[in-house]
């Protein structure tokens, strides 16, 4: 079999060896790029079908891996999950400090605010007795024990024991405290 450069009139075995080593080097680099693309795609892409497509694209020598490096996701899956976890932890820490978000404008407000200072919408109703903020589903004020008007049915009076006879009324208790 004639060497490749015999077509050009070159019959030197050293040149043939150098060309064969260069071709072997390029093939090894190409296979390493195919593996690198597969490994990198697995760390950046959640969908196995897209990982396979990226690996198949890298089978086109050098161009496929170059295209993959241009269109690949900018961050690793682990980094994205860590970022989401730190965001959730920060939100939980803010909630524990007494801050929450306005349901209308999503800006931070404190739990004790009656109105949002940004959008001026009403957040909570004040107690008619002590003026502290009340949640919408509270039936009484937990601070001063005043009834919330329009929410709490009027309390029934407790039956008093008959002082003269000393008897206790029979039946279940009727107080709603």
Number of helices: 4
Q: Strand tally, please?
A: 4
Distance between the termini: 104 Å
Percent range of helical residues: 40-55%
Number of domains: 2
Question: Biggest sheet: strands, sense, closure?
Answer: 2 strands, antiparallel
* Strand order within the widest beta sheet: 1-2
Outline the low-pLDDT stretches: none
**Shape verdict:** rod-shaped
Category from helices, strands and their pairing: mainly alpha
Order of helices and strands: HHHHEEEE
How would you describe what is shown here?
With 177 residues, the chain is mainly alpha-helical. It folds into two domains: 4-78, no CATH class; 99-154, no CATH class. The protein contains four helices and four strands; from the N terminus they run H-H-H-H-E-E-E-E. It has helices spanning 13-44, 48-57, 63-71, 77-96, and strands spanning 99-101, 108-110, 125-126, 133-134. The protein has a two-stranded antiparallel sheet. Strands 3-4 form a two-stranded antiparallel sheet. A hairpin with a 6-residue loop joins strand 3 (125-126) and strand 4 (133-134). Helix 1 (13-44) runs antiparallel to helix 2 and helix 2 (48-57) crosses helix 3. The longest helix is centred in the N-terminal third of the chain and has 32 residues, at 13-44. The chain is rod-shaped and about 120 Å long.
Q: In a nutshell, what does this entry contain?
A:
By secondary structure, this protein is mainly alpha-helical.
Helix/strand layout:
Elements: H1 13-44, H2 48-57, H3 63-71, H4 77-96, E1 99-101, E2 108-110, E3 125-126, E4 133-134
Antiparallel strand pairs: 1-2, 3-4
Helix pairs in contact: 1-2, 2-3
């Amino acid at each position: 079999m004639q060497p490749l450069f015999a077509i050009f009139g070159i019959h030197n075995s050293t040149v043939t060896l150098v060309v064969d080593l260069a071709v072997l080097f390029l093939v090894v680099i190409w296979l390493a790029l195919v593996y690198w693309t597969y490994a990198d795609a697995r760390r950046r892409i959640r969908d196995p079908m897209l990982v396979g497509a990226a690996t198949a694209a890298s089978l086109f020598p050098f161009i496929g891996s170059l295209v993959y490096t241009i269109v690949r996701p900018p961050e690793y899956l682990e980094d994205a999950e860590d970022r989401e976890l730190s965001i959730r932890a920060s939100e939980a820490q803010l909630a524990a400090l007494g801050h929450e978000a306005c349901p209308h404008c999503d800006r931070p407000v404190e739990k004790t605010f009656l109105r949002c200072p940004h959008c001026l919408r009403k957040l909570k109703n004040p107690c008619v007795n002590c003026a502290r903020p009340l949640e919408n589903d509270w039936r009484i004020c937990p601070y001063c024990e005043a009834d919330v008007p329009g929410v709490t049915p009027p309390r029934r009076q407790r039956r008093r024991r008959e002082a003269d006879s000393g008897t206790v009324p029979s039946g279940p208790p009727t107080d709603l405290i």
